[in-house]
Specification:
14% strand; 10 helices; 263 residues; alpha/beta
Length: 263
């Protein structure tokens, strides 16, 4: 860090959960922040994060849209982004054919379209400077067919793959790309996804978002390719690599099918 000049971190989905904890870690580490989310709680997050001494700018915007991402890019302006933590994401439970299409598309556009658009814009400037760090919040869900969560798992499979591909493309540029792959985490995710009546949603032993964020933040700072948060999730990820897809789909069904919390 140049004396007197604080680095800038951009964190999406920073109103709560893993995103907020990533922003907190960056603030404690001496970064100024630009944070964004699609809900009013992002303003409360701004107030809390300012207590760490840095400058915090907050934007409430729909990051599933090009317009929303452009609003975020306008807040960033011409400033150098030292770390981009692309964490914005949405989930959706129930069978695919029973889902409202507008909600399913919102998940795809938030998790994939808006995320990769933002990354392309920010990463181009990083490549020109030959310096920068990117952390993408993927998921171990991307390693298995998501019965009763098919759209969400599909978007995370995309992000997990995309992160590794972009990392390889940028390997000689000074820009690192890391992928954080959490398992079930104690956030508002399952309530928003209407999955509180599922076995996975009702499980009280979810990971602490602060612990998950610390794992990802450290991986980003070290420039590691990917990191699975938690021993149980590491084991699950390893098993997913050698288990037939049909078996994984049935296992996921038992966790995510509506009413499975009573099974």
């Amino acid at each position: 860090m140049i004396e007197g000049i604080r680095p800038l971190a951009v964190v999406t989905g920073a109103s709560s959960g893993i995103g907020y904890e990533l922003a907190r870690l960056a603030a404690e580490d001496g970064y100024d922040l630009v944070i964004a989310a699609d809900e009013p709680a992002i303003i409360e997050a701004k107030d809390a994060l300012e207590q760490h001494g840095g400058k915090v700018e907050a934007l409430q915007a729909d990051l599933s849209t090009t317009q929303g991402v452009d609003e975020l890019l306008a807040v960033i302006g011409g400033r150098q982004v030292d770390a981009l933590m692309a964490n914005a994401g949405r989930g959706l439970g129930h069978g695919f054919l029973d889902q409202d299409w507008a909600q399913a598309r919102f998940v795809i556009d938030t998790n994939v379209t808006g995320t990769v658009y933002l990354i392309q814009k920010v990463a181009r400037a990083m490549r020109e400077r030959e310096r920068g760090k990117i952390l993408i919040t993927g998921s171990i869900a991307g390693l298995m067919p998501g019965s009763f969560q098919a759209v969400y798992n599909g978007t995370k499979a995309f992000l997990d793959s995309f992160a590794w591909a972009l990392r390889n493309e940028l390997k000689d540029t000074g820009v690192s790309v890391s992928c954080l792959m959490p398992g079930p985490t104690d956030t508002e995710f399952f309530e928003r996804a209407d999955m509180l009546d599922t076995k996975v949603g009702a499980d009280p032993k979810k990971a602490d978002p602060a612990d998950v964020a610390l794992t990802g933040y450290r991986a980003m700072q070290k420039g590691e390719g990917d990191v699975v948060a938690g021993f149980k999730n590491k084991l699950q990820a390893a098993m997913a690599a050698v288990t037939p897809q049909s078996v994984l789909a049935e296992q996921h069904r038992k966790m995510a099918e509506p009413g499975s919390d009573k099974a």
